[in-house]
Design goal:
single chain, 6-stranded mixed β-sheet, 9 strands, globular
Length: 247
């Protein structure tokens, strides 16, 4: 059963996390599906903009720890990076959206925690409802954000704010997230805001839009692959400690 839906309407792709009863908690199959859906969109010239959202009460509550912890071998298999991509399955679920030539707009409501936040951060724009809350919550589980969060946070906010969010794992409201640059805009109707932005973007040259995204991604800050490698290297001993029951 698919927990990631894809609908194409004209020049837009609508991608939605579809596990509403679990606040769109991310499972390993969902991570793989997210990457597959992103790759399928990247092959289509007719799609100009992607709008990413979550069904149900939340965008995503993050990685479903209960479902992943029950299969430690799967964690190990998916933690190993694919050499020609430079990402593992956890990272690719987010970074695949950064690879797309099309701009990606995340529509966020409810909880946007952990891996869910890292997925939203991989979008080019984030429109959030006033009731949305955000948390870099991995430290609560004795871990660090390892789904490209180090690479995307560093592009959006200062290191002090990134450390504050990461070290405390405290949830923050949408107004604070907008103030520090974590989200693009807080609005009563984030879906409508996303559609309006999509209208403006699709009025421009698709080649220029794709080139602008590619240019900024390559030059905004150097060394994302080094960042992702360090992310994995930092996470690995923490995962070992978890396996040994040492927090």
């Amino acid at each position: 059963m698919s927990n990631v839906s894809l609908t194409v309407d004209g020049d837009r792709a609508y991608v939605a996390l579809d596990r509403p009863d679990k606040h769109n908690g991310l499972t390993i199959p969902m991570l793989r599906e997210l990457a597959q859906v992103a790759r399928s969109i990247g092959k289509r010239d007719d799609i100009r903009v992607v709008i990413l959202s979550g069904h149900g009460p939340s965008f995503s509550s993050g990685l479903d720890i209960a479902s992943t912890a029950g299969d430690p071998l799967s964690i190990v298999r998916n933690f190993v990076p694919i050499p020609w991509r430079g990402t593992n399955a956890f990272q690719e679920a987010c970074w695949a959206w950064r690879r797309l030539p099309q701009p990606v707009i995340a529509v966020v409501h409810g909880h946007c925690f952990g891996g869910g936040l890292q997925l939203a951060l991989a979008a080019d724009f984030r429109f959030a409802s006033p009731d949305a809350d955000f948390s870099v919550m991995e430290v609560k589980h004795g871990l660090i954000p390892d789904m490209t969060g180090a690479a995307t946070l560093s592009r959006l906010i200062g290191i002090d704010k990134a450390l504050l969010l990461t070290m405390t794992a405290d949830p923050v409201d949408a107004a604070y997230a907008e103030r520090i640059g974590l989200v693009t805009e807080v609005t009563a109707d984030p879906r409508a805001a996303a559609e309006k932005l999509a209208d403006r973007i699709t009025a421009r040259s698709p080649h220029a839009v794709a080139a602008a995204k590619r240019l900024f991604d390559r030059t905004w800050q150097a060394g994302p692959w080094r960042t992702l490698g360090i992310e994995r290297a930092t996470q690995l001993p923490l995962l070992v400690r978890q396996a040994l029951g040492r927090r």
